[in-house]
Design goal:
Its EC number is 2.7.1.24. Its main location: cytoplasm. By secondary structure, the chain is of the alpha/beta class. The chain folds into two domains: 124 residues, P-loop containing nucleotide triphosphate hydrolases (Rossmann fold); 68 residues, no CATH class. It has nine helices and five strands; from the N terminus they run E-H-E-H-H-H-H-E-E-H-H-H-E-H. The chain has a five-stranded parallel beta sheet with strand order 2-3-1-4-5, with helices on both faces. Helix 6 packs across helix 7. The longest helix has 25 residues. Bound molecules: adenosine-5'-diphosphate. Adenosine-5'-diphosphate binds next to helix 1 and helix 6.
Length: 201
């Protein structure tokens, strides 16, 4: 069995930035966001089922899923949200398990933004949290995503709180400083995970 380190954090905490440093050290990544997109790519059974339920207007002109329209469909409709989750969650889970099992390396980094929100705490051997203050998240989200302060605040409010994430974390990377400081923290953690993975084997 592969030793699994889950990497999580709120929007713009720096998950991708930290994950890239692990990747440069040769750690295989399994990215929950990428899997969630791939299970509804053009040609998949899941996308056909979504079209069968909502009609062709759920697609963009290139035949791919119109996520904005789908989000609207499930936004205030609990029944639709449940239907979609019951379609996608098993597929995402299956694909995630497959990729983790076939990852080459002493341990795998599972990048999963909604780790706390989706109650995945028992699904990893260790949870690494990328932590910054909400103020830093807001400032970075406004710049990266070109959204307003209010929009960024809404996204933050829809996610788990900093305290909820900290309560589940085994390790924390403080990403409020210069990006270069992450390298030192990640190098230290990598060494620790190699040791933990060796004992786990
Ligand atoms: P996440 O994957 O958690 O949403 P990203 O890694 O994409 O976050 O980082 C969000 C934004 O903040 C990006 O534009 C990134 O370049 C920037 N960023 C990340 N870490 C730092 C840092 N330590 N200092 C300044 N900007 C940062």
């Amino acid at each position: 069995m592969t030793y699994i380190v889950a990497l999580t954090g709120g929007i713009c905490s720096g998950k991708s930035t930290v994950a890239n440093v692990f990747a440069r050290l040769g750690v295989p990544l399994v990215d929950a966001d990428i899997i969630a997109r791939q299970v509804v790519e053009s040609g998949t059974t899941a996308l056909s089922k979504i079209v069968a339920r909502y009609g062709y207007h759920i697609l963009l002109s290139d035949g791919s899923l119109n996520r904005a329209v789908l989000r609207q469909k499930i936004f205030s409709e609990q029944r639709e949200k449940k239907w979609l989750n019951s379609l996608l969650h098993p597929l995402i889970r299956q694909e995630t398990e497959l990729r983790i099992a076939s990852a080459k390396g002493p341990y795998v980094l599972w990048v999963v933004p909604l780790f706390v929100e989706n109650g995945l705490c028992g699904k990893a051997n260790r949870m690494l949290l990328v932590d910054v203050t909400p103020e830093i998240q807001l400032a970075r989200a406004i710049v990266r995503d070109g959204i307003t302060y209010q929009q960024a605040e809404q996204i933050l409010a829809s996610q788990a709180s900093r305290e909820q994430r900290l309560a589940c974390a085994d390790d924390v990377v403080d990403n409020s400083g210069e990006p270069a400081t992450i390298i030192q923290s990640v190098t230290f953690l990598h060494k620790q995970y190699l040791e933990l993975a060796a004992v786990f084997q």
